[in-house]
Amino acid sequence: MKKDPNLRIYLIRHGETENSARVCFNGHHDVPLSPQGKDQIRQVAQSLKTVTLDAVYSSDLIRARESAEIISGFQDNLQPVPCKQLREISFGAWEGLSVEEVQRRYPGQFDKKFRDIATFQVEGGETFQDVRDRVLPKFDEIRKAHSRGQVALVVHGGVIRIILAQILSIPLQNLFRISQDYAAVNIIQYYGNDPVVELMGGAFPKFSSALPPDKKIAIQ
Questions:
Q1: For residue 72, what are the contacts with CB-CB under 8 A and spacing of at least 6?
Q2: 168 in a domain, yes or no?
Q3: Mean pLDDT, to the nearest integer, of 114-118?
Q4: 20 to 30 A Cα–Cα from 75, which one of 41, 69, 85, 150?
Q5: Chain centroid to CA 196
């Protein structure tokens, strides 16, 4: 018989943002959720209401904080903890620009970004290696702080991809083979120190059916 997990982590991408129609490089650009984005996260929060979360962490950027606050609001007396280390990649000079604007202002660089995903760096920005080096230590810190229970991290597509890639031994160069829509839910279960990805890129309402039947993990 398969033993029960001691820790379950929900990795949740924030909802749609106000500038999503322009398909922008937001990075550290602090853009809030759109009304549609808030509705997306409310649907996720409603489903997670059946889960007893012990903590909610988020990036300190407003789109993640707003999403985390909505999810925490469906829990009992839970306040989200914002963490700067969980921010999305910084796009430097591209921050807030649309794909069309980047292609026009920086011809050739857009294609180069996707040829060299791990190490490509926009002027004033980060590489995905930089992001990995700040995200993974914080993720490990959070995981070790909760040896048992259930925890949610409400963050960004790039951050989620990096965590999943580390667990699944996927090279950074292949990060974008992992799909993460707005409000996507991913579930990682830990058996001791051994992680198992139970759900990846789950969108509402499909992810609800993937919630484990044992909704609460006892804190011992």
A1: 53, 56, 78, 79, 80
A2: yes
A3: 92
A4: 85
A5: 17
With 0-12 / 13-18 / 19 or more C-beta atoms within 10 angstroms meaning exposed / middle / buried, residue 122 is buried
Answer whether residue 217 is part of any domain: no
**% of the chain exceeding 70 in pLDDT:** 91
How many separate helices (H) and strands (E) can be counted in the chain?
Answer: 6, 6
**Is residue 206 included in any domain, yes or no?**
yes
Residue 198, domain CATH: 3.40.50.1240
pLDDT band at 111 (very low <50, low <70, confident <90, very high): confident
pLDDT tens-digit series, residues 75-109:
999 999 999 999 999 999 999 999 999 999 998 89
Q: Which residue is associated with the tokens 């489903």?
A: 47
- Closest by CA to 52, choosing from 198, 190, 217, is 217
- The rounded distance, in Å, linking the Cα atoms of 22 and 99 is 8
Residue 108 forms part of a structural domain: no
Residue located via tokens 């997990």 = 5
Report d(CA 129, CA 123) in Å as an integer.
Answer: 15
Specify the pLDDT at position 93: 96
Q: Give residue 166's domain range.
A: 7-20+33-88+127-210
Q: Please tell me the total count of domains within the chain.
A: 1
Summarised one tens digit per residue, pLDDT across range 183-208 is: 999 999 999 999 999 999 987 655 66
